[in-house]
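Risk register update: the risk that structure generation would not scale has been downgraded. Supporting records follow, first protein first.
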Amino acid sequence: TTVKTVLIDEYRKQYKGKESDGFLQPLEEMSDDLWKSFINKIDWKFEQEDEEELEQTLIVEIRKQSFYKVDLFGKESYVIAALLDEFEKRQNIKDHFGRLISDSQVKLKLLEVGNNQYKMSDPVYEQWEKLEPPRDKRNLDEKIEAVTKTYSKRKLGMFARKIGAVKLELAKIDSKDKGAYQYRIYDACEERLLEILDSYDGSEVEPRVVDGWIDDLVQFAETHLAEKSKDFTYPFKNKDTLRNTILELFDSCYLSFDG
């Protein structure tokens, strides 16, 4: 009775203000026998190690590895982070054995950390997830045409193809890596756009000016990513994907040329 009451109350809170109430009615109608059956399927864990104790246990286990070397001393937390990243990326693999990390992969992570080659995933993906939905609903074509009426239709068509391609690229990577990559580029472009548009008076410009703005944004974002890459890892290194991601950010309403 207690579990049922607490769970349904929490369920109501999470769906409060949303268009749908989820599966609230089926939950409320579940019989006590079905609730007991559900609870009995849970593998309860009591009086086990907390996060800090578990980390210390893992550090001890890492130091027991045959390929543990002195240059890893004090870097065990990076090894744990590297293994967790690898493990999390494997959770969508359908084959359960494919989700496991082998001894050779553990050794590889130890070598990466020991040789200072391991870089953590950028945690700013959380900032990307928290961004408010943009109010500007115009696509890239409309935003370019707002500042220049004579822009090449052929080039706009090429941009559309590049945006479609980069969406496929971004869809293939881990959501956290994708969010961090997009946020860093968005953050850099927004900063640079404020400087670029400071001198823009709102009048129509030549198409070459828009091309110059885009080139400027690509260069600024590339420098920004290169600096962040000293500490964090990103899924793409090439300028082409970077440029296309910037175009996609304009198309998906996050950036604009006219404020």
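Supporting record for the second protein:
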Amino acid sequence: MGCRARVAKRELLRVTAGSSTDGRPAVVPDPTATSPGRGAHLHPTSECYELAVRRKAFPRALRIPAGTGVSTALLGEYLGQRDHQA
């Protein structure tokens, strides 16, 4: 979704539309790929995440209505923690 490079699905992180702690629409990581609903996939790297944010790819891919102010903070935090563990 961010860099649009093609790789095996198991190498990608699935994200879904959810809600943040304050109830606003948010992009939520789904590492087990078991959450219901529409999902999108991206490389689990900060670079791919930042590119997807810059391209405004999350609302389009997850079909979140425009103008709702979708938050990507939860996904950013998840990827930041993952980068520090590696």
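Strands lie at 13-19, 25-30, 39-42. On this basis the risk owner (M.S.) recommends closing the item.
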